[in-house]
Write a structure and sequence with these properties.
Length: about 150
């Protein structure tokens, strides 16, 4: 019985180590970034260059964090889909979902979007006047976030 408990404990320790042993961040050369990411950047940020790419692993999840020469920060999920854009200046209209862009242009015509984020249930944009707007996954306006 005692021998079985020791084996179970060792197996649990190995599993725990394997799940956390790979956690962390790793700087990745631009040449080793996935094509989907470099294509997205060259399409939507043609005047910026990639300063740094970082792959972050946390258990089974994997994200790519990219810093551009204009100080814009991008985050891609494990499927290499964009999920977060944090800019210092106005983001290109091409990165804002059409329905959200229309809402901002109609209701905040003198402001521009500087940040965009997508999570499981909603999207958020921050404007250059620091107002944060929340939308559902389909781009329908929900509320102004405090």
């Amino acid at each position: 019985m005692k021998n079985s408990l020791v084996k179970i404990w060792l197996i649990a320790a190995v599993i725990a180590f394997s799940l956390t042993g790979c956690d962390g961040e790793k700087i990745v050369p631009v040449s080793e970034l996935p094509n989907e990411i470099t294509t997205y950047i060259s399409t939507h940020f043609p005047y910026s260059t990639i300063l740094q790419g970082v792959v972050e692993r946390d258990g089974f999840s994997k994200t790519y964090q990219i810093t551009l020469s204009d100080a814009t920060k991008l985050e891609f999920n494990r499927k290499k889909e964009i999920v977060d854009i944090d800019g210092k200046n106005a983001l290109p209209n091409s990165v804002i979902p059409e329905k959200i862009l229309q809402y901002v242009c109609t209701n905040f015509p003198h402001n521009s979007v500087t940040d965009w984020k997508l999570d499981d249930r909603k999207q958020q944009v921050e404007l250059d006047n620091e107002i944060t707007l929340e939308f559902n996954k389909d781009g329908d306006f929900l509320r102004i976030d405090d």
